[in-house]
Amino acid sequence: MLMKRLLGAVAGLALSVAVAAPAHAEDVVVFAAASLTNALNEIGDQFTAKTGNKMVPSYAASSALAKQVEQGGPGQVFASADLKWMDYLADKKLIAPDTRFNLLGNTLVLVAPLDSKLDRVDLGPETDLAALAGSGRIATGNPDSVPVGLYFRQAMERSGQWKAVEAKVAGADSVRSALAFVERGEVPLGVVYATDAAVSKKVKVVGVFPDTMHDPIVYPFALVAGKETPAAKAFLEFVRGAEAKGVFVKYGFKIN
Asked: Do the beta carbons of residue 137 and residue 169 sit within 8 Å?
């Protein structure tokens, strides 16, 4: 009798677990700007816990990811660190336009290795960054394609400093790669986002670029055209929710 009750209880538990689990758990492939790595990893775990569906991220420069989408890559969600590369895909009709929205903002900062003698720089149009770097270089994203580098180039062009600074730029393939150059002490200065500097224990922020020196830093999200699965739609809605926004704020992002 006791054995029958135990078997009945186990069967009931198995049934309740089966009912609670999603009937068709799916992977959601997310192509996201490298600066979103830490925040989206945490949000992905939350998404899985809530839905059973798994976020499968691919982090890189927005430029590289947009090219992968164009070449037929597996990304279902695209999260860019600027409007340029989302517009690039939109012009080619490679995103679902009705799913696009601007979610986040960020701040451009100047960083140095922790042991740097440089402490604080009041950045502005008159600040001579080329002189500040001395014989060293300034790491940032490739200023021809990677969003963080594009924002930095714009700031330097608006202040009339680009010609002097251009030769000193060490262009990296993503903002995280640029951050790594500074962390390893290979360059005396780097230009990254405030959120990237915040997750590193090897660099310090020595200056903040005024927003007036460059266009607003905007992170648009959208579904890739033809890949609007229920799980992908659910993920896109999830990142707009209060729980996900709380994570973004924790990592220093601005909510638009």
From this structure: yes
Q: Which of 234, 224, 249, 255 is nearest to 48 (CA)?
A: 234
CB count within 10 Å of CB 86 equals: 23
The structure's pTM equals 0.89
Quote the CA–CA distance of 172 and 175 in Å, as a whole number: 7
Exposed (0-12), middle (13-18) or buried (19+): which is 132, by Cβ within 10 Å? buried
| Segment 24-68, tens digit of pLDDT | 689 999 999 999 999 999 999 999 999 999 999 999 999 999 999
Going by C-beta distance under 8 Å and a sequence separation of 6 or more, which residues neighbour residue 26? 53, 54, 229, 230, 231
Q: 7: exposed, middle or buried (C-beta count within 10 Å: 0-12, 13-18, 19+)?
A: exposed
Q: Say how far apart CA 15 and CA 202 lie, in whole Å.
A: 50
How confident is the model over 148-167, as pLDDT tens digits? 999 999 999 999 999 999 99
